[in-house]
Task: structure prediction
Amino acid sequence: MNQHIKDDCIFCKLAHGKIPAASIYEDDDFKVILDASPASRGHSIILPKTHADNIFELPDEYCEKIFKVAKRCGAAIKNAFGYDGLNVLQNNGEAAGQTVFHLHVHLIPRNEDDGITIKYVPNTNKDDDEIKETVEKIKALM
Ligand SMILES: [Zn+2]
Result:
């Protein structure tokens, strides 16, 4: 697939081997490396080899393939250490917790009571009219 590389992007450098990393998987389009600040042993990030700031910029062909990579690598990480579960996590924008602006998908293996906190508290209105309006506003942009 076409690859765009951004010169000053650390994840482009990692994805293309310009900076060494502990890689658990690599193909023509993706490199998967252990996270530099892991939440748990085996915590990895999937890096597309093309630069995209976020999911909105990632070409569709990469979007189609990235979940297959997440499944394959996630299963290996989970089973290598007998974890109970795995989070597949992807942040877009500073408000959503993104800190490096080259799209990446976290694979975070989990055990019961591991102390890792990845959660949200439901806090939106559940009013029927608001739900209807919410659906309409989103669908109008598809
Ligand atoms: Zn990049």
Q: What stands out?
A: The helical segments are 10-15, 60-80, 128-139.
